[in-house]
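Input record (one chain):
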Amino acid sequence: KLRGVAAPKSSEQQQQQQQHASTIRPQTPVTGLDVAVEEVQAIASRKHTATIELAKSRFVDKNAVEQCSVCNDVIDNVVEAACCQELFCADCICGWLRTSDQCPACAKIMKASELKRPGRVLSRLIGNWSVRCDFHQTSLQGCPVIIPLRDLQEHVAVCPFNPATQSTPIRTVRPQSTVEDVLMASPSKLRGDVAERLTGHLVTSRAHDGRLEVRTASHGKSQVYQRTTVSSVPSDRAGETTLRRRSSELTRQAETVCGGVTGARAQEVAGLQRLSAAEQEQLLVDAGLRCQKPSAGTALAIKADLALPWSQLRKLRRWLHALGVDIESEQTIRSFIAKKLPAYIAKDLPMTGKSGEVSMVAAVYFPSLIDVITHYLDQLHATGALTWHGGVIPDSEIWLKIGGDHGGGSFKLSLQIANTTHPNSLSNTIPICIFNAKDSPANLETALSQYRSQLRQLQQSSWKGKSFKIYFFGDYEFQTVNYGLSGSSGVRPCLHCLCTKKAMEVNRGERDESEHQQQPRTLETLS
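The corresponding structure, as predicted from the sequence alone:
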């Protein structure tokens, strides 16, 4: 900001101006730009030749800067009105308010105490205004530098035309010693002070945001000279604020060298990849980084792929936690299952205990067995996992296996597709009904009666032109319960024929096989 020196004022006018200024300045802390204003004012006061009009004429392009609504000229010592955010010269608006209480821009009521310095964004724009040096008319030549207003103070301090920095009078450059002559001179013939002054002049006049771009004549490539702060404290002993500032400075330099944000990120990745595995591990430890926590879906996939029961999954969680890797809790995984498998139905069913008492027991089951089978077959077909085992299964048939088993306090009814490479594997087993009770005839009737009609419908339907053939599997105890047999203590304990228990006690070679072969057990002969 530039301020000139107007005509001398009376003591009363100076006192009023100081009172108005005191209502403005305390609102915003004094910045380096304000110091530059006061420095320019002091220089102008000593010389008694500068005026406000002369100070304003130092702006290179008056149309590119804001104008005061009172004097209609380039704004000097900018202040902002709170009522309409209009910008004024401080002297102009203070003089206006001595005779009027209305804003000259919007005609609203305005007080001097409501004036304030412009915000950070506007101050930055003002700082970018191009202005001539304080000493641009010091001699016949004058300082030719045109710089942003925010860099004025720094330039004035080292300006070669500043009398305060010269021990001898300033000599006018001879006409034959032009800037082109200096640039064409050999670097070895330039005096050290001349080269330093020339470099400082170029950096100060051409640098923007601490960057100076120079295109060399020999190679035609752009070379960027950036400001680099020499650290006095190593980063391992620096504070967070200093580390953030240094990181920002390094990021800017990396973006310049690597061609933007994407290039800088690729360069960082390449640098990490060049480190050894031990160095990478140590870097993660030093940074305090932990592995990404697997989601509930990932934890469920681990459980399914490793065929882990919940108890084993808990042990795995404890081991991974000791190694610094955490996975979701069992409750979260179970909640995830409940949300991702809406086809399951959970309800309480009346089940009979060992002593004959009936109680409500939790049960989970698929309500539609046909939908489950069709969906599973579509998945196998899409992945090419269906097989007919070289003709063992007819090409026109799909073999289904339905069976159950009791263990761990619960009964589980499962489904398997025989048209797979490993039909008896755990990955080919789909639970369709689970309840926490004994697999007694009464309990099986309660839980599985809903599938009786669905199995009949399935035997009469087809999938992609292929009919279904259903097999029932399970251990001997489960089979005898489903067939209504007495088990091993019955008269005819065999599941496949009507051979008596007494006949089975005879050696195979001495047994009457004809009677055995003529009496196969069928669904019609089941008691």
